[in-house]
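Quick illustration, no need to memorize.
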Amino acid sequence: MLRHCPATRIFRGGDFMRNGPLLLFTLFAAVPRLLLAQAIAPDTAEPGTVEEIAHATTETRFLSPWVSYLPASPSVVSPRAFLHRLPGAAGELVDSSRAYAYCRALANSSPRVRLFTIGRSEEGRDIVLLAVSDEQGIRDLERLKAATAALADPRRTDAATAEQLVAGARPIYYFNAGLHSDETGSTESVLELAYRLAVSETPMIRRIRENVVVLINPVSNPDGDPRSARELGAARDLERYRADQRARRSAHLRGAPRAVLSRGAGAHGAGDARRVDLEFR
């Protein structure tokens, strides 16, 4: 039967010499993709992301299989689709308004994400927080918040009550990104992280969703972030920009007062008496 199969003809006589290397090359080229598909199952990779991430990573030793792809979703918008590029792509920066726009799009498209406005900056910009969990965790956010607050206050929660609360509560893990305006990588990273936590069906991510509430503040400093995005976008030379910032900072500190905090015992040992001395460099 096999001798009549067209696929076996290349193995007969001189045909193998002509076509065998091409077949072997095709098989070997397919092996990495097959291994990757097994590694990320049950996820499927968003088309193009495996190649783009591998190309953007300087050495393979820096690339974990956990982040070697973006999981595809038929209903939840990915950061790559929204930004029209990979998060962290060379020569590109997302500012706070664009980051917040993606956060809103993510929350609107996934029942596993909820968005809160937790305050305003000195210049009047929103400060946004994402909560990511499974559907039950998102529905129970107020109860989980109350349980965590009670566990944090031993004045009104005894040991027996604490045990009961722990049994029905969840740990809350908090990511704070973009605290300093030139720390741009963290914002790009947590946008991808939020999406990955919301859509991936790998066992590790599912365990996180089912047992933890993850809070993500993507831009802690929404006033400084747009300025850095503009300056870096114009310069396109990150090392030169950072060197310039260090020089400015050093010049500023040479003439700035330095606060030196000294501590002493409190009157009744209940706290520390603090004294702030101002010195000049």
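The two ends are 90 Å apart (CA to CA).
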